[in-house]
# Entry
Amino acid sequence: MPPHDTAVLRVAGRPVGRYVTRPELPVRLSPRPYLHPVTTLAGTAVTELSPADHTHHLGVGVAVPDIEGYNFWGGRTYVRGQGPTELDNHGTQRHSAFQLRDPDGFVEELRWVAAGSELLRERRTVAATELTDAAWALDFTFSLTNVTSGTLSIGSPATNGRPGAAYGGFFWRARKEDSAPDVFTPETEGEKAVHGDRADWLALVGASWTLVFAGATDRTRRDPWFVRTAEYPGVGSSLAYDEQVPIEPGDTVVRRVVTVVADGRLDRDAAAALVRKAVSP
# Structure
């Protein structure tokens, strides 16, 4: 899958992420720009691209399984009363232009297109910042504007009848290892307790790395976390958890997630300290 165009994110001169803007992917995977590989400062990869268990998982990016019935997540579509179903309803996120492109980040414009029509226009801002000699932060903001003449509805398998499957929005497919990663928030731990929690931050801890995800705006912090550890390691911030989210013509939905990428296995105190540093004004 050779990319047509890439941007390399650097922290203190070291490459920590590769952003592919025009991937060559089958339509069934809902082609979209993504970050992969993303690494710690020591060079440990903390993302996966099209793993065998979910070929539509593409590193770090934005993916939504239901926008007015179109699938911008990839793979099968959950149909109420029918279950996961193969449909010819996949959309594509198309890179339009970089408004800004620096070694430590970029501002990008994208078009969300399905069935030959543009539904959403996105402005995506990504920045990489050094926190310590063993940790850095990925600051990821996306703004989705409805460019159609009618209301668009953002949904998820959960809002379509599949309990607990409220994925859609910012999503990070983490590195799969021999053992499932640990997961905890400031108050809870374990996949069952953390999944669906509205915590300020969430830590995913692998063999030699830690990812700490933090909602960086009040609105983002109101979105519950989507978490998987046993089946596969993945974390997302759920746009449509309990009910579908309408976007009126011309209106914009904005979310910002800051992720600490650290070498080593951080405990709760260390994770919280790095989040404070990463999200501070």
User: Anything to note?
Assistant: The chain has a mean pLDDT of 96. The two ends are 39 Å apart (CA to CA). The chain is about 5% helix and 45% strand.
